[in-house]
Specification:
Blueprint (H helix, E strand, L loop, with lengths): L1 E2 L3 E7 L11 E7 L13 H5 L14 E8 L5 E12 L2 H6 L11 H5 L3 E10 L4 H17 L5 H9 L2 E2 L23 H8 L4 H6 L3 E2 L6 E3 L14 H9 L1 H12 L3 E6 L2 H14 L8 E3 L16 E6 L12 E5 L4 E3 L13 H13 L20 H19 L7 E5 L5 E4 L1 H8 L5 H8 L1 H10 L3 E2 L3 H8 L1 H7 L3 H19 L8 E2 L23 H17 L10 E2 L6 H8 L6 H16 L3 H14 L3 H16 L4 E2 L1 H16 L5 H13 L3 E5 L2 E4 L13 H23 L3 H7 L4 H11 L5 H30 L33 H10 L6 H23 L3 H30 L20 E10 L19 E8 L2 E8 L9 E6 L3 E8 L10 E7 L3 E7 L5 H15 L8 H4 L17 H19 L3 E3 L13 H6 L3 E3 L5 H4 L7 H11 L2 H9 L16 E4 L15 E4 L4 H8 L9 E5 L6 E5 L7 H6 L10 H20 L2 H6 L5 H11 L2 H18 ...
Parallel strand pairs: 10-12, 10-13, 11-12, 20-21, 35-38, 36-37, 36-38
Antiparallel strand pairs: 1-7, 2-3, 2-6, 4-5, 5-6, 8-9, 9-18, 13-14, 15-16, 17-19, 21-22, 23-24, 23-29, 24-25, 25-26, 27-28, 28-29, 30-31, 32-33, 34-35, 39-40, 39-45, 40-41, 41-42, 43-44, 44-45
Helix pairs in contact: 4-5, 5-19, 8-9, 8-10, 8-12, 11-12, 12-18, 21-22, 21-23, 22-24, 23-25, 26-28, 26-29, 29-31, 29-32, 30-31, 31-32, 35-38, 35-56, 40-42, 45-46, 45-50, 48-49, 50-51, 51-52, 51-54, 54-55
């Protein structure tokens, strides 16, 4: 029983505090004045009466009512029903009251008008009866307003003394019905006493009603079961306001503990909405802040960090806008706003879908029949109250599904004196297979669920509707969930229960409550008196009497119906049906069972075969559970003692099972394995046994406190169950009790507990505590088993080394749950990494102590027992450590596991082992091919050994997967290619755990991740690392393998013994001495280091690498000029220099000869200068250079200073057709021309003004001399005037040049980009003549200048003006109109039409101008080039994309995404784009000078590619070799520096400039496969060996260094060892004689073919050199190794073939394992191999393949064409006219990776940029078959001469006809030699072939039988053959073609 109302309060406006701030309320009266003992008076009621603030108003407002909820410190809720009305404020009170408020707030008019103040009547109760409170307060107000005869004190007294039951449906009114008005005053007290003792009849009469004594009467319906919430209509109202989806979001937000805020203008609606949300959360109870109505003054509460459900008036909406983590529900607007930072987990599918369906059916019953053809006439919609209960029933149904089976996961730890229950969350989620469900995880972790477990966990208590649902109706729910109508029936049943609970007597609804006679607001302002002051004594008298009576009355004891709570069906019953089990899981389980059986039956071979399949199967949960069950059975059969091999296999399976578990599921599997790891063991020696736990410690589950707690509670529950099962007496009872669960037993014990004697109770408590205590000791032992490592001295309990290493795959790390206090305190105590045994012991002791404290406190263990435990734990740990020491000692003595035999690698001749094989495991990297992901067993991990030789790092071994165990895995790469080495920590799921490892990455795209075997000592691994480092970075280039090959592996710097090549040594020494003498004659100064300016900062590295000696003065002319008096020692040098590649190429191009100045032919425009013969002018240039004839060597010396590294412009190639020149140089030096242009009159340090001027002029003359040497220039003008030059040039320009102009413009636009940052340029032009820097960005005319007069060059002092950027040049190149400053028409025409004779390609970033020529004979094209840093970074990303070290954790980081991010393709595109531009310019007759960076990186790439594209010679073997030797080696590309070949270059890193060039060549090769003599393999071979250091070719940085070391000419001398090639070219030459591996069979070049490839990224392909892998033999670029291995394999297979039965010829090809080009050779290679094999069999001398090939090609070319016989032979493959493979054709079919596009408009600018043109003249056509030339034999089925009659009125003509079966055509030509087809008859259109008759004009003297007609669908053709026989042949041939079709 409880009071209906605890307090009645009258709250009014506080006039005393008016004006101080906002208005305030104050409590005028409260009853009772003293607090109840059991229920203190809640503070702050006055705030909640007016939540929006206390204010006076000018107009009376209607009375209002709402219920606010206050929560006290004990979490008790107080319902405050507030009835507010407005009273007239006495004007006198207004005047008397001083106005302290601001004048603005209270104007004078308001003061004089009527004012109304609010007054609230408040009822405070612990019960929630909103309507009863509304009626009671309304009655009090009515009594006051209408002046009823009942005293207010009576009504209030009756209200405060009304006692009602809390629940049970009984409304017996214990309070009297009193009225003081009906009794004479002198009898009042007696009457009152009589009122408190009514007779029995009166009690019966008022049992269902209450009355307050004012003629009122009302029924109170209390709920039958108080645990079910009362909602009225609030839930239905909430759904109507917000809708289904919004309320579901709020529901899930409340369950997952988010902050929820309701907004509404109505206070009562706020309360109802909050009540509704709590009602649908049943059976969970909300445990956080709950304030349905929050006063405005307390809005700061919304900033609390804890979750809440709060309601706020809409007037405060603006204050809620800043809340970033609050879900806001607007009840009036019907919206729910969820902030971006808040993620609400929704119900799991399909439950969410079922819920939405059920709710929509409840709220809209018409929905189900909306589509019916014959809908029912009317569907009775439920009333709002019924609908409310139906909605709640849906949510009850949801919770029944969410929590089904929860009682099976309750652990009862103690039954007496009070039940202690814990919920096993991991088991609950694991058994339901919902470990990944975010919503359920959060709900189970929440406080509401914790309260749910504590309240509903006890097994013996009163039950309610939810318990019944969980216990008895789960099966029904599961069966009906997919049938909506059945679900609705169930929901209606539940709704009925809920409605009955809330309305036990729905028929009794009698209410009689007075309302005010008229509306108060209609009364005059002063008519209604204010609420009177009540008499406290009278009210208190009522209360005291009632209180006294209650004390004297016997207590009303309501029998509480307690019973055993049923648990419902077991979780496993429905999980098996819902679990997504794989279709083949039964087979997997069978494999697991078989393997375990084989192990225990000692059939180890069978078990070994099954082991890989078992390890794969154990990734599934079913297989893991099966494993634990099977092992458990063997333990029960006493088969737990194993031998060594059995033990190893069981351990391996256990480790795999634990390792592959998910985070939550791991607890279930680990729980099942925990008893097993302490059972399985093996005997090590006398009395020493090793248990399985010592080998399965590497899993994080053992370090998770939650796991140990759950296991402990589970075991305690089992033991307590056993304890009470034993106490049951009698066998029958024992048998019946055996099937009881622990909860059922606990329920029974709780039932009989009150009946037991004190002694019996005490005994049970002690027994339970002893059980818990003994389990705590047991678990202390278990934990020490699994936490103490076998070798306590080796490492700490939990390795921290693997934690920070991203490469590690180990999962042995400290989880967050324990890495807290203990790990920190442990670190602070020990203070160092290597922990001693005692440290490990301390660590474990602290961990176990924490565990024991927690579980014992929760289980109610006494302090004495707890202290005893703390004393025992260190002893337990120490004892176990001692046992482990013995086990560890014995385990070391075990014979080692039989490991695979180490395989020895094949070595090259001269290659020596530096370190013998160390046993390692090759770990899989991120490439999927070898991992088995693409299908097939995984090749990696593999077990073998790593070898370090003087040349390579080699791994050789076998895969650990037995299915491919017979294969040999080889991975190797040259040491010189190593780019990165780092240590890694690895754990393998194998027989043993490997810790240390190395990751080695090479620039040949190999990645070697090796983990050292446990037998490899750590110091040996360190020695290996040091040796690798030493060999990778030798002190000097002579320490590389190319120099040390065949010698000892020590580094050889100088050989003292006599050398056979003594003359060469002397020569090189003399050369260097001469150079040093020459330098010695000059003033030698030290360079003073000055910080570089920003424009040449990228050249800083190269400048610092230069020698410290610099030449500051003009060297002595006598030592530098080539004269007839060359010293004899130097003449030999010169003869060698002349034989170099450069000179051979210059002579081939006709670029000059080496002759004396006296005898030099004046007609030759160029000469070979010997100015650099001693490498004093430029060390990185070759000794002989091509310079203009007219420039003396002394001038060259001065010019070279203007360029960086003294690399001045020299000619390197000339176009044989246009005679245009290609020049190369470095960028302009900071101290060069630019400096003079910037400050022409300022004297520069060390150089006089006159010298500066002369150098600048000489540079101009040099460029002018180059221009003058061009035939087009000399033809154009005999005198140097603009008019003559322009007119002759434009008149001589041909049509092709005009057509090509827009193409070059478009190319320029692409190459130069669209950036506007053109650097300012400086010039000394006459009268401000503009410097001509080409830029193709949108032009801006920066200023006007005067007209430029024509004339000769002025002096540099002539004008020092700054020039402005000239916009005309770019427009002119792009073929656009441009404004001319002077407006002259003639100049405009000339400037736009003519093209410069020389274009200088310069770097935009460093180009600050160059001296330009007034007559526009050269122009500067600024482009952006990629610097070295860009290439380096791009290459690193490319390597990581192609050879990732591990699989990417991010799913979107695919190979193509990583490739895109590397920007490697973008860099190739830029280089190719610039190269194609230069080719176009050269082809159009303009010369080009490439002047970029230091002239040895990008410059070399571009000039090499330009020559390759322009000159077919460079696409042959000899030509390509000559190109590389000339442009890369002689012109000083820094191979050593860029490849970091020595210690000096170690910090600079690897920069693959040459590899980038080879990739560009590869891209061109793909697009033009018939233009190259060499194959793709040739390019890969060079890419591999230019970094391998096997050959000396690519060592050192320049010819000067090679001469100094004596290696430049040594190949010409006598070789010591003919088998060791020092030059890569010699090696290729030898190899080409033996095998066609480098030859391209499709090589069929066209004369003078100029290639113009596509350069767009979409046209570029990833080079397979980067991605291919050959694990069978390693990289296939060391031919001797590959050939030797092949012979070895052949011998083995031959031996095997003899011994076994005949085998199939079919062979499996494994793309990532085999070398596909070898295993599957192309047809021609196969034929040549077969030919060689046959010759060997016949004993003939094998002919060289090249001779065979050339002979066949010659035969095929000369093979006569037969007129009528079809010819089809192998010549198909070898035809030199395979035009369909050629890019030069306009139309091209896409096949064999070569593609093109239809080019129909070569002269348009757009197509010029996107279409590759492979020649100068093209014919465009749209006929598909035009690609096949008519002379090809394979397209001629029958051919000959026929006469054909022309169409309508045309004569007969003799034609050459070709019948083509391939294309199904009859074509005709003018003659047999004609290649252009005149017409085609499609055979598909032919209807018949019939004999014909001669017609008019037919050939004479021919018999009639020779005529025949061909009828097609369009017309009839008349033919005439030479005779009847030929005619018959033609008819038969055509007929056969038709029939074949």
């Amino acid at each position: 029983m409880a009071r209906l109302a605890d307090y009645f309060v009258v709250v009014g406006y506080d006039f005393e505090k008016r004006g101080v701030s906002e208005g305030q309320g104050r409590i005028l009266q409260r009853f009772p004045e003293k607090d109840w003992e059991d229920n203190p008076f809640p503070q702050g009621i006055e705030l909640f009466c007016q939540p929006s603030g206390w204010q006076l108003v000018a107009e009376r407002l209607p009375a209002s009512f709402f219920v606010a909820v206050l929560t006290d410190i004990n979490s008790e809720r107080h319902y405050c029903a507030c009835f507010t009305f407005w009273e007239f404020v006495d004007p006198q009170l207004q005047r008397a009251e001083p106005c302290e408020a601001d004048e603005d707030e209270t104007p004078r008019e308001v003061q004089t008008s009527h004012l109304y103040a609010p007054k609230s009547l408040v009822l405070v109760s612990r019960l929630d009866h909103t309507e009863v409170f509304r009626n009671c307060l309304s009655l009090i107000y009515t009594v006051h307003v209408d002046g009823l005869s009942v005293p207010l004190e009576t009504v209030i007294g009756n209200l405060l003394t009304c006692i009602i039951p809390i629940a049970g449906g009984s409304q017996i009114n214990e309070s009297p019905v009193c009225s003081l008005n009906l009794v004479p005053l002198n009898l009042t007290c007696d009457w009152l006493l009589g009122c408190f003792q009514p007779d029995q009849e009166g009690r019966e009469e008022c049992s269902r009603t209450i009355t307050l004594g004012a003629g009122d009467r009302q029924v109170i319906q209390t709920p039958i079961n108080e645990s079910l919430p009362v909602s009225g209509c609030s839930v239905a109202q909430l759904f109507r306001q917000l809708g289904i989806v919004n309320v579901l979001y709020l529901f899930c937000a409340a369950l997952t503990e988010h902050k929820i805020l309701f907004l509404s203008r109505s206070y009562q609606r706020l309360t109802d909405a909050c009540r509704a949300l709590l009602a649908i959360m049943f059976p969970l109870k909300y445990s956080f802040t709950y304030v349905p109505i929050l006063p405005g003054k307390l809005l700061e509460v919304l900033s609390t960090p804890t979750p809440f459900i709060i309601g706020v008036n809409s007037t405060f909406r603006s204050e809620t806008q800043e809340l970033l983590d609050v879900v806001i529900a607007d009840l009036d607007g019907g919206t729910v706003t969820i902030p971006e930072c808040v993620h609400i987990s929704l119900l799991p599918e399909p439950l969410l879908q079922y819920t939405q369906t059920a709710l929509s059916t409840v709220l809209d019953p018409d929905l189900q029949v909306a589509d019916h053809a014959f809908p029912p006439s009317s569907i009775q919609s439920s009333s709002l109250k019924i609908q409310d209960k139906e909605i709640r029933a849906v949510f009850l149904w949801i919770f029944a599904q969410l929590f089904q089976g929860y009682r099976w996961c309750l652990h009862i730890i103690r039954i007496h004196p009070e039940p202690v229950i814990r919920f096993h969350k991991a088991a609950f989620l694991g058994q339901r297979a919902q470990t990944e469900d975010d919503f359920l995880m959060k709900v189970l972790d929440g406080m509401a669920f914790a309260r749910f477990v504590s309240e509903r966990g006890p097994p013996y208590r009163s039950t309610d509707l939810f318990d019944d649902l969980i216990a008895n109706q789960v099966e029904r729910i599961r069966q009906e969930e997919v049938f909506p109508h059945k679900v609705m029936n169930h929901i209606k049943e539940l709704a009925e229960h809920l409605f009955k609970n809330e309305n036990p007597y729905p028929a009794v609804a009698m209410h009689k409550v007075h309302r005010p006679a008229e509306s108060p607001q209609n009364c005059p302002a002063h008519a209604s008196a204010s609420f009177p002051h009540l008499d406290e004594v009278t009210v208190q008298l009522f209360i005291d009497h009632a209180h006294a009576k209650l004390r004297s009355a016997p207590p009303v004891v309501k029998a509480e119906l307690k019973s055993m709570v049923p648990s419902g069906p077991h979780l496993a019953d429905f999980v098996e049906r819902n679990g997504n089990v794989l279709a083949n899981s039964a087979r997997r389980l069978e494999v697991v069972r078989n393997c375990i059986t084989y192990v225990f039956d000692n059939k180890m071979l069978e078990a070994k075969k099954l082991m890989p399949a078992v390890l794969r199967a154990l990734k599934g949960r079913a297989a893991r559970v099966c494993l634990t069950q099977e092992l458990n059975q063997h333990v029960q059969q006493n088969r737990a003692v194993l031998d060594d091999q059995q033990f190893e296999y069981i351990i391996r399976m256990m480790n795999c099972t634990l390792q592959d578990c998910s985070h939550m599921d791991e607890h279930g599997i680990a729980a099942a394995l925990l008893p097993l790891v302490t059972a399985f063991c093996r005997k090590l020696g006398a009395g020493i046994t090793q248990f399985a736990y010592s080998c399965v410690q590497e899993h994080s589950v053992w370090t998770t406190m939650q796991f140990w707690e759950a296991m402990f509670y589970s075991d305690v529950q089992n033991h307590i169950r056993a304890l009470y099962l034993e106490t049951e007496e009698g066998t029958m009872e024992g048998l019946s009790g055996a099937g009881k669960s622990a909860l059922e037993l606990a329920s029974e014990q709780r039932r009989i507990w009150p009946t037991l004697s004190k002694e019996a109770q005490q005994e049970r408590v002690q027994k339970e505590e002893s059980t818990v205590f003994s389990q705590a000791i047991h678990y202390a032992n278990r934990m020490s088993y699994l936490l103490l490592p076998l070798d306590t001295s080796k490492n700490r309990l939990l390795r921290h080394t693997g934690l920070g290493d991203g490469e590690s795959v180990s999962n042995s790390y400290v989880t967050n749950s324990i890495a807290g206090s203990m790990a920190e305190s442990y670190d602070t105590e020990s203070g160092f990494e290597d922990a001693e045994t005692s440290d490990v012991a301390n660590y474990v002791v602290r961990f176990i102590n924490r565990f024991v404290d927690k579980v014992c406190n929760e289980s109610g263990v006494t302090n004495e027992h707890l202290k005893a435990l703390h004393t025992m734990i260190p002893d337990i740990v120490q004892m176990h450590i001692e046992t482990l020491d013995a086990v560890h000692r014995e385990s070391k003595r075990l014979p080692p596991i039989q490991k695979p035999k180490l395989l020895r690698p094949t070595l090259l001749q001269g290659e020596e082992l530096v370190m013998d094989g160390m046993r390692v495991h090759l770990i899989p990297d991120g490439r999927e091919e070898v991992m088995g992901v693409m299908g097939g067993p995984p090749l990696l991990p593999a077990e073998g050994a790593v070898f370090l030789t003087s040349y390579r790092i080699i791994f050789k071994g076998t895969p650990t997967d037995p299915l491919v165990g017979e294969q040999v895995v080889t991975r190797s790469f040259p040491i010189a290619a190593l780019t990165k080495e780092k240590r890694i920590s690895v754990t393998l799921p194998m027989d043993q755990f490997i810790q240390e490892g190395l990751q080695l990455r090479s620039c040949t795209f190999q990645l070697m991740k090796v983990a050292f075997d446990e037998e490899v000592a750590s110091d040996l691994a360190e020695v290996f690392r040091k040796n690798v480092h030493k060999l990778r970075y030798p002190q000097h280039v002579q320490g590389t393998f190319a120099f040390t090959v065949g010698q000892a592996t020590r580094l050889v710097v100088e050989q003292k013994s006599k050398d056979k090549n003594q003359s060469l040594k002397t020569l090189s020494k003399n050369l260097v001495k001469t150079a040093k003498r020459t330098i010695g004659r000059q003033h030698v100064t030290r360079k003073k280091y000055t910080p570089p300016t920003w424009e040449n900062r990228s050249s800083l590295q190269s400048e610092m690498d230069e020698d410290e000696i610099s030449v500051c003065e003009e060297p002595d002319q006598s030592s530098l000029t080539m004269s007839s008096t060359i010293r004899s020692s130097d003449r030999q040098t010169m003869s060698n220099v002349v034989e170099r590649a450069c000179c051979r190429d210059y002579q081939r191009l006709g670029l000059g000869t080496l002759s004396n100045s006296l005898t030099r032919s004046k007609n030759e425009p160029f000469r070979i200068s010997t100015a650099n013969r001693m490498y004093t002018m430029c060390r990185s240039y070759p000794g002989l250079l091509i310079v203009p004839q007219s420039i003396p060597d002394s001038t060259i010396q001065r010019i070279s200073r203007c360029y960086r590294q003294s690399r001045f412009p020299v000619v390197c190639w000339r176009n044989s057709r246009t005679k245009a020149l290609l020049l190369r140089s470095a960028g302009l030096h900071a101290k060069g021309v630019v400096g003079f242009f910037k400050s022409p009159n300022a004297p520069s340090a060390g150089v006089g003004p006159s010298q500066a001027d002369s150098t600048s002029l000489e540079q101009e003359k040099y460029l002018q001399a180059i221009v003058s040497s061009m035939p087009s220039y000399s033809e154009a003008t005999g005198r140097n005037t603009l008019s003559g030059y322009s007119s002759s040039h434009t008149s001589s320009s041909d049509l092709s040049d005009k057509l090509r102009q827009p193409k070059i413009g478009a190319l320029m636009r692409q190459v130069m980009g669209g950036k506007e940052d053109i650097p300012g340029t400086f010039s000394r032009g006459v009268l401000g003549q503009k410097a001509r820097v080409v830029s193709l960005t949108p032009p801006r005319v920066l200023g006007k200048t005067g007209h430029s007069p024509r004339g000769k060059w002025g002096s540099i002092r002539g004008s020092g003006r700054l020039s402005v950027y000239n916009p005309d040049v770019g427009n002119r190149l792009a073929g656009k109109e441009s404004p001319q400053p002077n407006g002259g028409p003639a100049d405009t025409y000339f400037l736009r039409q003519q093209r410069a004779y020389l274009y200088i390609i310069g770097d935009k970033a460093q180009l600050r101008g160059g001296k330009q020529d007034s007559f526009q004979q050269w122009e500067v094209v600024p482009i952006e080039v990629c610097d070295v840093r860009q290439v380096k970074n791009s290459f690193k990303k490319l390597m990581k994309a192609c050879v990732p070290s591990s699989a990417s954790p991010e799913p979107n980081m695919t190979f193509h995404r990583c490739l895109e991010e590397s920007d490697w393709m973008g860099l190739l595109h830029r280089v190719l784009q610039v190269s194609v531009l230069v080719v176009e310019l050269l082809d159009s007759g303009s010369s080009v000078m490439v002047s970029l960076e230091d002239g040895w990186d990008v410059t070399t790439q571009i000039v090499s590619l330009v020559q390759l594209l322009s000159d077919p010679y460079y696409r042959t073997f000899d030509g390509f070799r000559l190109l590389v030797e000339k442009e890369w080696l002689s012109f000083g590309h820094r191979f050593s520096h860029r490849s970091a070949q020595t210690v000096a270059g170690q910090n600079s890193g690897f920069t693959p400039i040459f590899l980038q060039f080879l990739d560009c060549v590869h891209q061109i090769h793909l697009q033009f496969p018939m233009e190259f003599e060499f194959s793709q393999h040739y390019l890969k071979f060079l890419a591999y060996h230019y970094v391998s250091n096997r050959f000396r070719t690519f060592l050192l940085d320049s010819d000067y260094e090679r001469i100094e070391l004596g290696v430049l000419y040594e190949e010409k001398g006598e070789r010591k060892n003919t088998t060791v090639c020092k030059s890569v070219w010699d090696y290729i030459e030898r190899l080409t004689k033996k095998t066609p591996i480098f030859y391209n069979y499709m090589f069929a070049p066209e004369d003078e073919e100029v290639l113009k490839p596509y350069s767009f990224i979409s046209n570029l392909k990833v080079w397979d050199f980067y991605t291919e892998e050959t694990l069978a033999e390693g990289p296939p670029f060391d031919w001797e190794l590959v050939r030797g291995r092949a012979e070895h394999v052949a011998e083995e297979t031959g031996e095997r073939a003899d011994s076994v039965a005949p085998r199939s010829q079919r062979r499996i090809v494994w793309p990532c394992y085999d070398d596909c080009s070898k295993v599957l050779p192309d047809a021609i290679t196969k034929l040549l191999q077969d030919l060689q094999a046959l010759e060997a069999e016949l004993g003939q001398v094998s002919e060289k393949w090249k001779e065979t090939w050339d002979r066949i090609k010659t035969t095929q070319r000369n093979e006569p064409k037969l007129d009528s016989r079809p010819s089809f032979s192998s010549s198909l493959l070898m035809s030199s006219n395979l035009s369909h493979q050629r890019r030069s054709q306009s139309v091209y079919l896409q096949e064999s990776r070569v593609c093109s596009s239809i080019n129909l408009a070569l002269d348009c600018e757009a197509s010029a940029t996107s279409t590759p043109a492979a020649g100068r003249t093209r014919t465009s056509t749209s006929t598909l078959y035009s690609q096949f030339q008519s002379t090809e034999s394979e397209n001629r089925s029958f051919e000959g001469i026929l006469y054909k009659k022309g169409a309508l009125l045309k004569p007969w003509k003799q034609r050459w006809f070709v019948l083509d079966k391939t294309k199904h055509q009859l074509r005709y030509y003018d003659s047999r030699q004609d290649k252009e087809c005149k017409g085609v008859i499609e055979l598909a259109e032919v209807e018949s072939v019939v004999p014909g008759t001669p017609t008019m004009g037919a050939p004479k003297n021919i018999e009639e039988k020779a005529f025949f007609d061909l009828k097609t669908t369009k017309r009839v053709y008349n033919f005439c053959a030479e005779n009847g026989l030929h005619a018959q042949l033609w008819v038969d041939s055509i007929q056969s073609c038709l029939s074949d079709a």
